[in-house]
Amino acid sequence: MFGFGRPNRLLRSPDEVIAAIAETDTTFPAIDALVSNDGRSGLAIDGAGRVLAVRLRGARAIARVVPWTALRQTVEGIVIDSGERRFGIVTLIGISALDVRRLGQPTTEAADTP
């Protein structure tokens, strides 16, 4: 109404997901990330294998470390139930379990170099 913030903010790349984590009060050294096809949420992984869910609420990003058991595959994509009412349930639209398994893995090009 008054033009404050960016109500139509979207996450467009893994780098933007990692940058959004830096905006939150969560300290999480992400090494890789995924973005939902709708641009409203993402998932990041750190070097220790912990996962963090990120969602946009208006122009603001919020993030929570979640256990791997909170992720499940559905027809729409990966659903993350943090168990926290304030964070809610996040759906990574268009993301499959295979995409999640690839998180933090070296790319084929990097793996082929000696």
Can you offer a commentary on this structure?
With 114 residues, this protein is of the alpha+beta class. The chain is 18% helix and 34% strand. The chain contains 3 helices and 7 strands, in the order αβββββββαα. The strands form 2 sheets. A 4-stranded antiparallel beta sheet has the order 1-2-3-4, with helices on one face. A hairpin with a 4-residue loop joins strand 2 and strand 3. The mean pLDDT is 90.
Summarize the entry for a quick read.
The chain is α+β, with helices and mostly antiparallel strands and 114 residues long.
> What share of residues are in beta strands?
25-35%
How confident overall, as mean pLDDT? 90
How much helix, percentage-wise, in residues? Answer: 10-25%
Integer-rounded radius of gyration: 14 Å
Measured distance between first and last alpha carbons: 56 Å
The main β sheet shows up as: 4 strands, antiparallel
Per DSSP E runs of 2 or more residues, the count of β-strands stands at 7
Given as residue ranges, the uncertain stretches (5+ residues, pLDDT < 50) are none
